[in-house]
Amino acid sequence: MKHDSEDRFFFQLSEEDVLPSVEAPTAREERRLALIGCFRPRRCGIATFTADSFDHLRSAAPDLAIDVYAMRGRPADADDPDVRLAIDERDPASYRAAAEAINESGADAVWLQHEFGIFGGPAGNMVLELVDRIAAPLIVTLHTVLEKPSADQQAVMARLVARASKLVVMSEFGRGALIDIYGADAAQIEVIEHGTPERPFAARSPLREALDIGDRPILSTFGLIGPGKGLETAIRALPAIAAQYPDILYRIVGATHPNLLAAEGEAYRESLKVLVEDLGVADNIAWDNRFLGSRDLLDQIELCDIYLAPYPNLQQITSGTLAYAVALGRAVVSTPFVHARELLRGDVGIILPGCDSDAIAEAVQLLLAVPEERRALQQRAYARGRQTAWSVVADRFAALVSKVTSPASPAPITRRWPALAGLWAMCDDVGILQHGMGIVPDRNHGYCIDDNARALMFVHGLLPGDSEAGQRVLTFASFIQHAWNPERGLFRNFMGYDRRWLEEAGSEDSNGRTLWALGHSAAKASGADFRRWATGWFERAAPMAQNFKSPRAIAFALLGADHLLDSDPGNAAARAIVEHGGAFLSALWKSARRPDWDWFETGLAYDNARLAEALIRAGRRLPSLSHEEAGLAALGWLCDRQTAAAGHFRPMGSEGFGCVGEYRPFDQQPIEAWATVAACATAFAASGQPVWRAHAETAWRWFLGDNDRGVPLGDIGSGRCRDGLTPRGVNHNCGAESILAFHLAHQAMAGSFWTIEPAPAALQARAPGVPAFAA
């Protein structure tokens, strides 16, 4: 096995190492992108940008299917045949429905256009209802990066930074702000400039004759009208310009911003007209009060000699009309806002020292007085615009989508046993440490009984005679024995590295998991003395199970009791736990299930498949056909829900634990894959149906890279496993729970589906020729 710089693993296996997959997903030739933003026919800059991106990306990437999810403030906002689904900007349920539709579509990537003001909630936080629920890699184009965000804006940005695989900004300022203010990773950020049209340079527009303008010098400002345009400053410059050039014409082109229009009608525009009259320049102003489509907008920009960008907000990082003016080769005079400073550097335009009417007048007079300078400036602008042509920008976006898209080829199913080096590295003479920092054990968090119980179950699957495994069995068993608190009749869970217990009693779930390990040991341990020890401790601790309220604690205890009954069918304590647990889980399932929700609880949490597995085992043991059928039905529903549209395993993520009736995909935990493999092995043994093998193999492939990010978590060569799958890849830490889940899942596959020999007694620390992954 080898790995590349992106930590993607490629298995090099001989034919005997690879087993055929049952109903393995096949690679899809067509990739799919979900594009989210305002869209035509809505009249705003984001809608224009999203529509232009859609049109040009289809040409740049004809193999990419693009589904548009359009933001809708009014019913007509998403009335376009290219819109797959509209999102009502003020309805949280609409965002959740869109996320579900995107997941069901099998989207390989999601591209979100973000701007404060187009999403509902404080600082537009309703967009997080969608972002938190999508599974595909997320690309976010940030049309605004605020230098001084409010608390609500900071919270939204923090979540977007945490969720996005890639953040796209249109300026180097935006890149720096994301790193310095919002803590983004530099490798996460792409600078892709605003796309611009590709037109031949036009020295003189034919619109001059159509509008009967003749040879009058034309100034223009374009876009939706509002106080943020700085139009007052430009208008106040006109008297000085008109004194020298009486025929100057300033065309203000654009409709009043819809939000401003709804709030106060045309009051702002009327105030500008009053200013014009007061200054005596009414003959030097032309108003074009309409929203322009792309072609009309370009024609209007070509008409002007000088484009004015008098914006007062010097932190503005994007201006589509400024980018268009440069691309069409217009002479530009602009205030020093962020986008202008970057786009116009290199003498591409005139950058003013501030938002000042006298400075505007002086710059315009210079360009009108020296035509050669104006023409040279236009040529430099047009040349700069070739770098931002939509064909160039669309190619960059197509490459970015390809970069974040998960590979479609399923990982091979390998029979090679994971090496034990990574597992033993987490152990000392006390037990197995909980956590790792990268691949290095982290002593700061000490130990827990949960991991030592899992470790005890794992070592029983190794061949008798392995001296190291034999010693580890005693270490893990001793940890469990020492955890017992006779005064509480419960096991403690957490121990510091200094060997001091950190609590008087652990949770119900940790105690249930300990009973599971004891019952498993009573049946699976190789020596009679150890089986006798495990049985004695199980019977001593068993009374606590009658008081459990946690469904998982009850299920864990039931699993242990069922194992013990394999070796001691008459054990009364174990029998009582199975009877009580089976009745409890059956009643829970009947009370919580709905037509579209065939589960034990109103939401999913962790170790979900164990509930179904326990009920199946109870049905087989008692016997109770109703229990068994209920468990199989619940497990089938869960497996279907945990299978992505592309066919890979997608468990409920830790962020979704306890969320009622919904699904959140991250962070995905190795324990879910192991639980599903083991539960499907139980279902296969009960029913013999091959579908359970298919589901188990799908869950196992998740470890090897057939997952939502296309990256492996488990490493056969070292036996380590990463701690989880996150929106941006893997959590690189390797803790005990994850490593054990990897080994135990492989053990379950080998024991139930592959019919191969148990792990060799002298399992090598690393398989020959197979390197461990780097820290």
Automatic annotation (TrEMBL):
Ranges where the Glycosyl transferase family domain occurs: 211-383
UniProtKB keywords: Transferase
Pfam families per the UniProt record, alphabetical: Glycos_transf_1 (PF00534)
TM region positions: none
Single GO term (MF): glycosyltransferase activity
Domain of life: Bacteria
Biological processes annotated in GO: carbohydrate metabolic process
Gene3D superfamilies assigned to the protein according to its UniProt record, in alphabetical order: Glycogen Phosphorylase B
Protein name as it appears in the record: Glycosyltransferase involved in cell wall biosynthesis
